[in-house]
Amino acid sequence: MRKTIQTGSLALVLTVTLTGAAQAGGHAKVTTPTLTGFASLPAATFVPGSEPSGSLITGNTNGYAVPFADQPIQGFSGIVNNGDGTFDVLSDNGYGNQANSADFLLRVQRLAPKFATDTVRVVGGINLTDPKRRVPWKLTREDRVLTGADFDVESIVEDSSGGYWIGDEFGPYLLHFDRAGRLLSAPVPLDGVTAPETATRTGTTANLGGSKGFEGLAKSPDGRYLYALLEGTVTGDTAGDLRLNEFDTRTGKYTGKRYVYRLGAPNLAIGDAIVIDRNRFLIIERDGGQGATAVIKRLYIADKRDRNADGLLDKTLLVDLMNIANPRRLAGFGETFTFPFQTIEDVVVLDERTVAVLNDNNFPFSSGRTAGVADNNEWITIALPSSLRPDKRIFPAHGR
User: Fold this and answer.
1) CB contact at 8 A, 58 and 117
2) Residues 128-162, buried b or exposed e (16+ Cβ, 10 A)?
């Protein structure tokens, strides 16, 4: 399958086969969640010939000198399957907060994992921009290239035209981009919810924690609805309860339907949310630990049918990411594989019995794999003991 990727003025023609690239391990029967593929993108991977970045970073950089000469390819916080062995992966807002990320350009990276060699190829990408001045307030840059001081982008789905809906945490806002990364319409706020970053700009009162907006964004199998999941609890709600908000892409408005996902404890967080079918979601739940302090890193199935009538999404544990079988000792790891990263923010269903999970390495700060060493961007595939019974419409019919 061939497709053309436009990256600035450079068009890359890429031929990739799905077998052995995006999906690893086949469909061998397993009795417990089992590692079937491992790939890694080195921490110090940069967009060649881009712009300096990281001039506002302070603190422990795990040995990396700042500023960087180019833009790092890091911080993966959302993923779209292109169906041809490549994936569009959303880089995080930059270096952890609004104050230190003004020189980090918001970008969708195009990647191709190669599990036969444990590597990830960078095959393209686009910067996110606002050339038509859809954002009504002043941006960081006069050229309307969006930065990590403008938005904290954390979640992404494809729209019907090959563009993207992206969830932001500073608003929280929904942002709609075309396939070239150009903002199509004004940021859509969530009525009644305001994060501190927006409260400061507008002079209103915040009722959500900083950067606790839309960490998860799921698209219904028919493409009409988006389900935007907050990372933080809204003031007045039960601690640990997260609002899942339904948005109608036809009307461009929220429907008023809202569901509640309850964390296992108020100090936990979610990392991503995607759909399995019209009623079920796949959600990453995690603690803030890394390395030896990482304990809770999990995938849950959450069902909005609420069969026990407690007003919450029904939760079922699918995978404990700290206890994955690895009988083949892939990538040199032992028979039990762990994913001990502070932030794990990407999950995608590859087929009815296989999921892929990626970490957000918070470059250059996180060091969950080896203390004192900046984490790579790791990409794993996991075989499941039984079928997810997914709606077939969640899979890409063909490459974009």
Assistant:
1) no
2) bbbeeebbeeebbeeebbbbbbbbbbbbbbbbeee
CA geometry: angle 331, 337, 340, nearest 5 deg: 105
Q: How far, in Å, CA of 246 to CA of 254, rounded?
A: 6
Measured CA distances, 194 to 169, 240, 266 (Å): 10, 17, 20
pLDDT at 17: 37
What digits encode the pLDDT tens for the residues 161-211?
Answer: 999 999 999 999 999 999 999 999 999 999 999 999 999 999 999 999 999
- For the chain, the structural domain boundaries read 2-394
* pTM (predicted TM-score): 0.93
Helix and strand counts by DSSP (H, E) for the chain: 1, 26
What would the mean pLDDT of 70-78 be, rounded to a whole number? 95
**What is the β-pairing status of strands 225-230 and 214-219?**
antiparallel
- Name the fold adopted by 2-394: Tachylectin-2; Chain A (2.115.10)
Residues 176 and 184: their CA atoms lie apart, in Å, by 6
DSSP conformation letters of 12-45: EEEE--SBTTTB-STT---SS-EEEEEEEE-SS-
